[in-house]
Amino acid sequence: MDGRAADNLGVFGMFDDGGDIVETAFLVQGLLAARQYFNRATPEEKDLAARITKLWEGVEWDWYRRGQESDAIYWHWSAKYAGHIKHRLTGFNETMIVYLLAVASPTHPVPPELYYTGWGGQSQAAIDYRRGWGGVTDGDHYANGHTYFGIKLDVGVGTGGPLFFAHYSYMGFDPRVRDRYTNYFENNRNLARINLEYCIKNPKHFPGYGPNAWGITASDDQSGYGAHAPDERSDNGTLTPTGALASFPYTPEASMVAFKHFYRDLGDRMWDIYGPRDAYNFGANWYSPIYMGLNQAPITVMIENYRTGLVWKLFSANPEIQTMLKKLDFKVEAEKQQKN
């Protein structure tokens, strides 16, 4: 939005100038955690909670379904171009939280079955979507079941994609739950372990990869912005601190090794006033000149979830979230979290 003129801005292209239900879901995830944290009976905190509730209840999740016959939620809507961008939300990627919040909504919900027809869908549209971005058939039916570097992946396309898939939807939502396919904490842990093992094996022989330097995910790179992933097609030698550091709940020991390397060994090449720079590529002799909140925020939040589980506990305490878990028949398996 242009705050001065109150006009939409097509920042990511002419047609992408309107509502974005995915980024909205990330915002709401944080707001609901904040609503539980600021819960004292003071005028200020009561007012804040009321304003958060108004925002939460105002999100029209069902609008993004595009009709009662639709089997999925769609990413974009524009006042000028309506649903011209036909980007179907299909897992496994970073958008699981959209379906969870859409089912949880007390005002504009979608039916629970949309989680399995949209997010975990088996339609030809869902299969084609997964094959299109992954370039493989492993996981094109949502369930994967293949083993990579000796690690089985229950759900995910190929070796799992960019590692932020294991972070964004789970900054607030506690992944220690099971649906028909997997326990998402265990699956996310395996995504991180596969990413680590890929960097240790380093099949494309990029300099700087190893047990102390891993975490391939979307970030700034020497050519702009790329959705880097641990596979032949998407790995260009760029390592991104958020990949390893936002994985602390899943791989605390390996994440700490990476943290010490990024901080102690790379030093001022990677760290400055705002913390770690976004990414680096030894082979291109390139270090990102920017700090990206999109990647720093998951580091902060997920380290706290590893330490205390605070944000997971706050988000889960919302009554709408507990109702959603029952609607979807998710099994809570909080005791499954591992510290190794």
Please give a structural write-up:
The structure is a single chain. The protein has eleven helices and twelve strands. By secondary structure, the protein is mainly alpha-helical. Helix 1 runs antiparallel to helix 2, helix 1 crosses helix 10 and helix 3 packs across helix 11. The mean pLDDT is 96.
Provide keyphrases for this structure.
340 residues, mainly alpha, two-stranded antiparallel ribbon, 12 strands
Helix count from the secondary structure assignment: 11
Order of helices and strands: EHHEHHHEEEHEEHHEEEEHHHE
Oligomer type: single chain
Q: How many runs of DSSP E, i.e. beta strands?
A: 12
CA radius of gyration is 20 Å
**Spatial order of the strands in the main sheet?**
1-2
Classify the secondary structure makeup into a structural class.
mainly alpha
Instruction: Please bin the fraction of helical residues.
Output: 25-40%
Low-confidence stretches: none
Summarize the entry for a quick read.
This protein is mainly alpha-helical. The chain is built from eleven helices and twelve strands. The chain is globular and about 50 Å long.
Topology:
Elements: E1 19-20, H1 21-37, H2 43-58, E2 76-77, H3 96-104, H4 114-119, H5 124-134, E3 147-148, E4 151-152, E5 177-178, H6 184-201, E6 218-221, E7 224-227, H7 241-245, H8 252-265, E8 271-272, E9 275-276, E10 280-281, E11 286-287, H9 293-307, H10 310-316, H11 319-328, E12 331-332
Antiparallel strand pairs: 1-2, 3-4, 5-12, 6-7, 8-9, 10-11
Helix pairs in contact: 1-2, 1-10, 3-11
